[in-house]
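Weekend entry, working from home. Most of the wet-lab plans are on hold until the incubator is repaired, so I used the time to fold the two sequences that have been sitting in the queue since the last round of cloning. Logging both here for the record. First:
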Amino acid sequence: MLMNLRCYTQRTKLVVKDAANQLFKLNTQLTKLARSNRHYDCLSLFLQIHSYGKPKPDHYSISTAITSSANSFNIRFGNQLHALAIYTGRKTFTHVSNTLLSLYAKSNDLGSVEMVFSELGSPDSYSWTNLLSAYTKLGKLYHACQLLDEMSLTDVEPWNAVITGCSEDIAFYLFKKMHLLGVRHDNYTFACVLNLCSVDEFYGFGMQVYSLICKSGFLGWSPVVNSLISMYFDCRNVIDACKVFEQAGDMVHDEITYNAMINGLVSVDRKENALVMFRNMLEACRRPTELTFLSLMSSGLVLSMCFQLHAQAIKAGYWPSTAVSNAAMAMYAEHGLIDLVRKIFEELELKDVVSWNTMIAGCVHNNEMQLAGSAFIDMRRTGFLPDAYTIGALLAGSESLENVQMLYALVLKSGLSLSSEVVNALVSAFSKLGDLNLAHEIFCDIQTKNIITWNAIMSGFLSNGYPLHALELFLQMQTSKLRPNVYTLAIILTICSNISALRHGKQIHCYILRHLFLNESSLGNGLITMYAKCGLINWSIKVFESMNKKDIISWNAIISAFAQYGDGKRAVTYFTSMQREVGLEPDLATFTAVLSACCRTGLVCDGIHIFNSMINDYGTEPGIDQFSCFVDLIGRAGYTDEMEKLIESKNYWADPKVWWNLLSACACCGNVRLARIAAAMLLRIEKHDPAVYVLLSNIHATAGQWEDAARIREMMKTVRVIKQPGCSWIKP
């Protein structure tokens, strides 16, 4: 009997031991599935264990299953696990309750979070972290801060949970309070605070945090280094960002570090350095991520580098990846390779709305509007709903009022009219196509207008020849709380230039100075043009000389100002200085401005030299504007025969600008024969323009050919062309 009892006891121990080993293996398998984000498989395995009954799930099994329920947002299964934990008594284990806290926090169920927390006998640091994180995430920030004050928690994790979801001011206050209470910051604290310092306003505090990091010895932690690099790049401090990267060393650099450097260098338009950093990343045996390729593909690389980068993405295993494919399509669309864009798009199996938008925007960018329309129709057929970006891309490329109206109807039908981006695009599209009434109606119907909305409607009125209406809208905008941006001020300066509104232009100049906008080249250029058109050339020169950054448009503006003012010599001097002293290469607009200046002041030799230099030194083929200026130049000098030969030798004979200049030159030198030829060509193109008849009649009268002059005047009556009386006006 005693022997049988001993044998039974030994068999029982073996069974228990086997059950414990089996449960350990099952728990290990559950953990692996959960950590591999295979949450569905994890929950399926738990369900099999529970259904079989042997071995029974323990507190580790339930905790892991609750974690997978939380991460897969399977709240219903999580509720069942909660009930099972209560039924089996496993809820008394702290780690089970903590996973329940995480489950209800992720499902935004604050009541259940508070209930589970209140049932904890002695909550640990992880419990407090989950509770405070839930309060912060669900808008109970004041309550979270109050709990921190009351409980005097010394562990860093609860503090980090609140700092993560705070605004800058509160986060900085809590960060300082941690320091005063002796709560030691960790790498996560520093990383969160540095991310909040990525604007110029808080850059000074970021530098103080950097000093504390150096003092605390956290500069060797990758998350801290990554946040520091991002902060410096966001604040345009490239030198210090590179210093931090170099000082950290290879042991600290991870994939995120290289991505932060590459993305930062791309953001400051240093794509060559970004490519070098990418090569260093490969040499350091760090595997590029999707973000690596997304940053580089959006940097505007030359076509040969685009092909190499594409090959690297395929080699790294990111093909076909939806995000990388979308970036590749946008990259090739910028280079006009629309066939390659279509090929990538068609081969992409998992298309998202960004894929369709990229395809449509690429077609619009390359003026393939029919292809863009077909892609839009296919997008809707496959069940994808167009978003604001889709409509905006189509509106930007639409050249038909009917198409814009159809898109407008679709916007109203789909409910996208509430999107400010779509409304702004509609206002711009209708304005561009001349339907100002509908554009203004849409503008007035918007309850909340942003600065882009105001800019769109003002630009529309200006481009359609209603500058005073645009100016009135600007005055209305001033009564709102919106402040004009650089583009707004550029529009108003253009209005002031067009109507010679010097008083308003000076007011805008004062606004620019008061709000420190003078470093914007576009505004400086606008001021130069505005003062020149108002007759204040000295003010144009002052603005030009005071500009810190002068681009090619700045030089074109000042040269055009001298041309308009009739100072051809200074225009040629500035043209020469731009090339020799600054090293800027003139563009077609520069040549037009300086040739116009030479033409108006009779600098024939200088004009001929500049025209020949454009062709021989810069290899630039003259356009119609440059050619018509040159024709005017030699025509005013009396070289009408040479001018006739020049016109016949070029392909510009059908352009009215050339013939107008020829006719004007004939009026100056009295060449009646050539004047008749020029007038005949102009009347073919512009039959009802009275200026042609008047100018030709005056040329005949000057030559004493009164009968011909009278005949042309009678011809005006025959074709019912009336010369509009001239008028002049001055705007103060």
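Second, folded right after the first finished:
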Amino acid sequence: MLKHRGKETDALIPHATERKVASQASINGLDRPNRDGWLRRLQPTFTDSGEQGTKPCEGGDRERSQVLYIQKLIEVESIAGMFHRSGEWNKEKPAAGRVDQLPSGRESVIHRERILRMTVQLCTALTICLFITEAQPNIFTIMVENSRIIVAVGENALLSVQPSAAVKSGNWEFGEKSIANWNYTNSSHYEGETKLFLTNGSLLLQSVTVPLSGVYTVSMVADSGMEAAANITLSVLEPVSKPNVTANATNPVEYDSVAMSCFASGTAVSYQWFEYNTTINSDNLFNLSGDNSTLTLSKVSRFNGGFICYAYNSLSRMRSYTYQLNVSCGPDRPNLSIQPDLSFYIVGRTIAFSCSAESNPPAEFKWYLNDILLQQTGSELIIDNITSNGTGNYTCVAFNSLTNISNESTKLVIVIEPVSKPNVTANATNPVEDDSVAMVCFASGTAVSYQWFKYNTTINSENVFHLSGDNSTLTLSKVLRFSGGFTCYAYNSISGRRSDTYQLNVSYGPDRPNLSIQPDLYGYITGRTIAFSCSVESNPPAEFKWYLNDSLLQQKGSELIIDNITSNGTGNYTCVAFNSLTNISNESTKLVIVIAQPQNLTILMDNSLITVAVGGNALLSVKPSVAVKSGKWEFRQGNIANWTYTNSTATGQYEGNTKLFLTNGSLLLQSVAVSHSGVYTVSMVSDYGMEAAANITLSVLDKETFVFHFTQMRKKWLKYSRFNYTSVSLTSKVGNQQNERENSKGVWTVLN
């Protein structure tokens, strides 16, 4: 490739073009030698400014003129052939590379115009070439891309060259022997894997070996007859292999001298050493051989390691594996620790000693107590359940068999016997309530003292409690069922421990049983199921028996269930509880009345529709037909009041704003509002379990509406009262005015 004004261009007179021109037999009767001479005479010469002059064109300017000239010359030959055979265009096909056969008609005119334009261009080019002053011949040179080439064995080497002008022949020499030669039409070269590029004379050597290293000389002859030569030096190198590091001592002892060697195959190998990626140079510790292949440590240290050797030549560079020196060292003075680390230790405790020492290989350990060798070996010594005999000096001795060095450390251990966990016992395992009981507390240890607690409250000698001289015994003169939660605390000067809570299992009872019945009614209808339940305070749990009118029943246990009761079931049901340890029994009785057919329950109402003014009171008056045991009032699916025959309860917003009459279940709503309007439902359960319900509608009106409503009612009342008078009282309150009248049973509203 040639360069012109900083840009790469193709060879301006390529051999392919030259061969194409040469293949054409003649141009207007000129053979190749005469034509070449004619072309050289026509080659233009330009000054640096681009104008015609006597200074020869240099580099790309001259070569571009030659290209233009050659291109136009090809067209001249084509046009000349066409002119020569102008009368036969439609009869004979032109030769390859010439103008195609032209058809007649409009296409013929187009091709004639094309020929005319090409002729004008050709004439212009010829005119320029003919009137340019002939230039002085240039100096012929061979440009070399790289004058020194380094390749690895087995690779290819390209000896790249570029002549400054077209050449007609050339030759490559190596070791004063021609290895390749060529001319513009063919080439020949010596044995071996080579390839010659005729376009520029470059030579490719394939799969090179070390003997092919040396100086290669290329010589060429230009078309002008000028000659030139150039040299290229080829170096074929064997690449460096992966280095291997060895040492003269496999297990050096610390502070010994150690030499490490690095070796790698290859051509002209050099070496460089690193320790932990830091370059090593010769100094007080490190000494390098002349070729750096051997590294000597005058005093090896346990911290020396991570050595790396780099082997390299001008072709490649390889790194060894990291080499670690296994330096034998130590042991240093052992680090002796103890867990837990206390000023003294309690008898029975576990103590763990741990001994560590810097050593390679790992040190061997022995243990001594007061200079007496113990059986345990290894870096740890564990003493379980230590006794007072464990007091003394514990020594750890570390030894390295390779360095023949030993070292030791010592710890003092003091063991004291503390108070053990107290144990509480009693002279009676199952005392009966009101009996006398003595409890004893015991704990091992030195100078043990005792203190008693009941549910975390300190016990002193008083009332039913009596303590012995050393407080180890606690006596209860009269034990109660609630006597329990006793704790004994034993202590001395170094420790204190609490016993488990001791519960006295006091036998007592039974008390009077609690006898209940479901359902709990005044009387029961025949065929109903009745369930009795009996419970009592007793330890151990009481045994139960059931009696009806002093006759023992077969059922046992705390429950008695009678299904489908008959009239014979009327009588006194007695539950008897008995404790076999206390030999105490107790009983409770319930009377049951069974009737054949109860009276139906209905709820009577004075009024089912009540109208009242805002702020007034509304009495929802009802009366059951028989005695009831419970009932409730509901409004808008919410419970607002409920009662039994003994008490009543109001809920929600009605609490404190209502009054319930237990005699009949009537409900008084006080200071009502419009929001209280709606349907109120009362439901009741009779003493015999019968149920009934009734609804009352309450309408709460503002005062003006109420006055109008009352006036209309009054008119109806006056009309109705002419025919039917009773002693029902009607009271109305509108503002501060009260009207009270005798009304018939047709009264609409009861107001208060």
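Plan for Monday: verify the second prediction. The first helix runs from residue 15 to 23.
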